[in-house]
Amino acid sequence: MDFRILGPLQALDDGRVVTPRGDKQRALLALLLLHPNEPLSTDRLIDMLWGGRPPTTPEKTVQVHVSRLRRTLAAGSGNGSNGLIVTRDHGYELRLEPNDLDAHRFEVLVTEARQELAEGHPERAASTLERALSLWRGHPLGDLAYAPFAEREVARLDDLRVAAQEAQIEAMLELGQHDRVVAELEALIREHPYRERLHAQLMLALYRCDRQADALQAYHDARHMLVDQLGIEPGERLRELQRAILAQDPDLAVPVGRDRAELPPGLDASTVLVGRTAELDGLRAQWRRAERGAGGLVLVAGPDGIGKTRLAAELARELESGGHQVLYLSGADGASETQAVLAGTRGVRRPTLLVVDDLDSAEHGRLNALRALEAGLPGLPVLVLAASRDRELAARLEPDATVELAPLDADGVLAIARLYAREREDAAIPVRQLVAESGGIPLRAHRAAARWARAQAARRLGVVAERAALERTDLRLAEDDLAGTVAELQAVQERTGPAPAGRGDLVCPFKGLAMFDVDDAGIFFGRERLVAEMVVRLPGTPLMGIVGPSGSGRSRPIRTRRPRARSRASPTSTSTTRRSSSVASDSSPT
What we know:
By secondary structure, this protein is an alpha/beta fold. Among the domains are: 1-175, Arc Repressor Mutant, subunit A; 277-406, Rossmann fold, CATH 3.40.50; 506-587, no CATH class. The chain is built from 21 helices and 13 strands. The chain is extended.
């Protein structure tokens, strides 16, 4: 029998659901499961089932419910389930083996993981805790969680679950997987805001993600919450961690030797896996069986480009990040390498994933070696994933399961196209066209989406280039018009205004450190058109050069554009003479 209370109450007999349907029978079973192998008196059962409002004949009613529960648990089994509930003096007892109850299995695994973590094996601890937490299906006892007899045990189990999650995060931090735990920690803190260990783990994870400011903000958030709601300061551990972050203590770095291992080169998990959720869940289930020592062979079949290796790589990435061993063989590998890997796999003791890629290219002798390994898999913690184009290969290998990958539907192809499209461009994605071009084959869908995205980018570039050319032409015409107008205005001013007396021939007015004034403006005439052209061209020109011989006034137009600089500028020539305004355009001093 398999009884489950880490979620809605469930009873299974050799995989067949035999959970009672009646409320009182369910409550009676839950009560007995919370006290396994412990006699419960009839009076105690009456008190816990009905409280202060028992039925008219409570003892008889308990007998009836026990009898019905026995029949429910034994229905259709014939394997002795009827002997689970035995009658004791003035009471009843539910006889269970240790592994018959999921809560007991959970506690055993958590204790094992804590020991592994204490012994310096975070990769094993993370894997063990993953198995433990996978037993949970929801709130303990589901709809019976608020029954008075269940409240205390439900609270204890909930606390154990959070403690297990904390231990798992501790192991992942030891393995250098800080980037993977931030979101989980934030969610856990929202559910359990007073657990300071969670706050400390979030601070450390953020710090290791190069988010020092966020780590310090996490401390301030925790402190304000504790002070405002409980009137207490954070504990010493949290305060010490804040001081270490401020000091950038080297001890906060990832422990040496805990860097994440890399996947074998043949398993590339860098692209997004699309449309394979059900298949991946099936492989995960196969892996969980292999972890328990019941290894097996799974054949992943499908045409080229369908994503066989990518699916295997996704599972491999998950297992590798949990500290498990991942091995890879290609059908094109040499015979000696293949034999060495297969021979080594037969002696492994830790859970291992072996991916055999491109099995169609393997020689007959290697297929025989794989079949020999397959015969011993039921006693090994090894899952073998074999990828092949030929589904008929299953007849020769006799795998435990075959996963045949089908082409992606329109949603899958759309998900791939979104990887190449710009934001908010979903409406423009030609999904039907991409499906038709690719046939739903992921590799072809990637290539078709990339071609479409390149064409879209080229089209946008052509539009922008054409618009820029038109705008540039308009800008050049405007520049010429503006420059001519400025020069014409200056010429008119010069023609209508007589030249000042006594200013026909002027020696360059070098004034030392004295500033030029309005009266000196005539000296700097002659560059009006040049300045006008500079004015109109600067907005569209990142770099502009002014060329001319020494003393020709190259610097003056620049100072005209920067009035504040005039106080720091003075001409350097000591002999330049301005004879008339027409000559000054070529020889005005700098």
